[in-house]
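Regression report. Comparing outputs from two consecutive submissions.

Submission 1:
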Amino acid sequence: MRTAQGVYRAARDGNRVARRVVRTQARQLALAIAAAASVLDPQLIVVSGTVDETVAGPMREALRSVIAAGPALVTGHLGEEAVLLGAIAAALPQARERVFAGSRRP
């Protein structure tokens, strides 16, 4: 179990140590989300990267124990490439503007 996916897989397969690690990680992530949610008041939290339903389920439970009427928590579908794809999406409009600014005709 050298990767998060390996730990999640072991937890799904019933490994007690992996399940404990997942519960601990889920609780820590839920506390961080609760702190941010108390300031930002979002309606939806999307977690992505290596986090899958193995962790998201316990995160939802831990989040509900801290914030009774907290935001919905769902897993994203972009996986480990979420940050990269978000950065590209954020930079693309500015890149288009720079590339095509000189090619406009009056």
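Submission 2:
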Amino acid sequence: MRKHRIHTLDELTKRSIDDMEWFWDACAKDLKIEWFKPYKKVLDTSKGIEWARWFIGGKLNIAHNCTDRHAGTRGDKTASSGKAKTEKSEDSRIELCPSKSTGSQMVSRA
């Protein structure tokens, strides 16, 4: 918020409502979303707000942004974990395993 000279949550909320394009552009940049093809426009409401189109012209891979891009620096960390309800309760984990030839691979561990 400091970067945008916003001092309170109320200010941020107001600006996000008043200028949705600014808000979502700032969010995408702050989250360091990696685009395979950059977007040209954040929001198009020319057909009405109910038919809004977001990040026009951009292409991304959500799996890459959620897991793959972190494999190089955090490949030894657990990407996801949970408990399955089965006859016997056991923990399972999904880990990122970097691979030079194919990027990262997800490996399930029981």
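Expected: both submissions complete independently.
Actual: both completed, but the second showed a warning that disappeared on reload.
Relevant detail on submission 2: The mean pLDDT is 79.
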